[in-house]
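Q: My collaborator sent me two sequences in one message, no labels, and asked for predicted structures for both. Can we handle them in order? The first one she listed is below.
A: Yes, handling them in the order given. First sequence, followed by its structure tokens:
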Amino acid sequence: MINNLVNKLNKYENIKYGKCNPETIRYTPYYKKDENIDSIDYLIILNIKYEIAIIWNQKFQRDNNYFIKTQSLSGLSWQTVLPISDEIKDWYKKMGTKQESIYQKVLVMSFRTLYYNIENLEELFIFDDRDTDFPKHLNNSIEDVQRNKRTSYIYNRDRRFRNKVLSAYKNQCAICRCKEKLILEAAHIKAVADNGSDDVRNGICLCRNHHRMFDENLIKIDYDNLNLKYCSQSVKDMPWYEVFINKYNGKILKSNV
């Protein structure tokens, strides 16, 4: 994925990117003396280890007569900002320590999500009160941006639910047995929208592909008999399905709780 992403990024003259220390959210770009900084609209940090990118809006900084030489999210770790699945997370960072300093919006997303959203960065950087970290009291009189309590609770709740569900399935997809933790997700058996709980017994560990199939009703699971009670024909034609039937006898994993 990284090679495809870099090849695509190289096509944009208004984007500058660089790889970073895999454990520190900090990047200091070194501009050449003859490089036109005014032509750079977005500055992107690529973390190869976690396959996520953090994007700064250089154009926003320039339009507000502010330029940050070193881009960082102080006090945060990569594990903290790591997005779940293909979501786009946002953070609001104050540009400077002065009380009158304004805020900038910082985006965090997976390589895959960035690849498909490079053309939409301008739209994604619009300040929106639906954002997860949008400061409801945003103005120039406050010193720090605090996460909205409700969205913070939901985010932390989701992470706890995911960790418990993955552990219950020994960190592997219940269907294809994929063990790559970065793409494993916790699906609710009974949806939250239908009053489903975050009890680990209401969760099943699925890889991103099977989670999407599950949500789109392309597959339906029989939890009593530990098999798939329904698969669309398009799903049955996929290579993994034959492996699922022949290698795993068409059985899904059972939770250990």
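Q: And the one she listed second?
A: Here it is, processed independently of the first:
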Amino acid sequence: MKRPHIKEIISTTLIELLELKRIDEISVSEIAQNSGISTRTFYNYFQDKFDLCNYIYDNLWDTYCWVDDESGKRCNLATFFKHSAEVMEKTHLSFFEHTLCHRGQNDMHEHIVKRGVADLLEQLRYTGNESLINDDSVSMIEFYLYGLEGMTTLWIKDKSHRELFFMSLDKTRFLPQKLYLALTADPIL
């Protein structure tokens, strides 16, 4: 049987710790100790605990959110939002709840927006709409994602009754129509 990679052990440990407390209450020493490694080994893999949070976030998005259930290929934006909501609501709510509460240096908020911009620009490429990529569309996507990230953070704090999936998709309609249609189209690549 293959032994899990150190990064996966550290990630699993942090996810388990986040079931119990907020990210600002967890130290790198605690993560390392519970992972069965030294603090020095932790720093061989991650810059700090926030870098680890970003790694976990990226892993979740790459593994669960951008893949179509049936075809196994890249999905459209509506399916992405559906998968994202499922990951957040059903499997990793405490991870998001206990990491997004932190605001400050190296917080996850900035990473989520940067990653989101890259993902949505990639989505434009996948839908054959590369011609829409310019400074204006990047600014609009950033603005949209800052709003979406803030709304998601509030949703997590308030445990809103409205489904996150529908809130996310609804807000996409605030983008200019050409950009909206391009981002919600099915990938052709």
